[in-house]
Amino acid sequence: MTDDALSVTFAALADPTRRAILARLAHGEASVTELAAPFTMSLPAVSKHLKVLERAGLITRGRSAQWRPCRLDAGPLADVADWVGRYQQFWDGSFDRLDDHLRQIQEGRTDDRPT
Amino acid sequence: MTDDALSVTFAALADPTRRAILARLAHGEASVTELAAPFTMSLPAVSKHLKVLERAGLITRGRSAQWRPCRLDAGPLADVADWVGRYQQFWDGSFDRLDDHLRQIQEGRTDDRPT
Fold it and tell me: Which one is the CATH code of A3-86: 3.40.50.2000, 3.10.50.40, 1.10.1040.10, 1.10.10.10?
């Protein structure tokens, strides 16, 4: 049930190391060794994360066997933005309600205090 | 390594049933039975998905023991939108590059053809 593209993308993003790798690649392509440098992690462990990102289409890798630079591919992130954007009214709404609540407090209306 | 809030949110969203539940709740609060209706899934299976969503803060549940309506809580989705928004320049950029590429093809420039 979780092999649809969006689920694969969300699963790939559900890890802080993988998100840190994407953040690094936002500054430009990098080799596995360069990507591994900031992490206290073995190259095979980093490679495993890269495979997850590659499978999700979030990165692409160069073809040269010696130097296979990783590049960010933001296509799936655009799909995430599209999906989450449908809910924007709900968090905008939450802030509106918070605003209303704060305004009522400032105006001295205390009828919604817990009893 | 995956117990930070954003990772928990992404993991919760990495399932089409859970995303469908959120889409349903965008139309208003609903009981577990109402949420289970469109799925060929047992109530316990749906309850398990709801627990994942609740743990991620994506839904809240009423306190009455008999009728515990689920409600969408879009706060974590705002965090997702904030995170993914940082990459917007990259998919906008991708479309720009695609535009450039298509323009070059239309102009008869074929020097980037694979050899």
Answer: 1.10.10.10
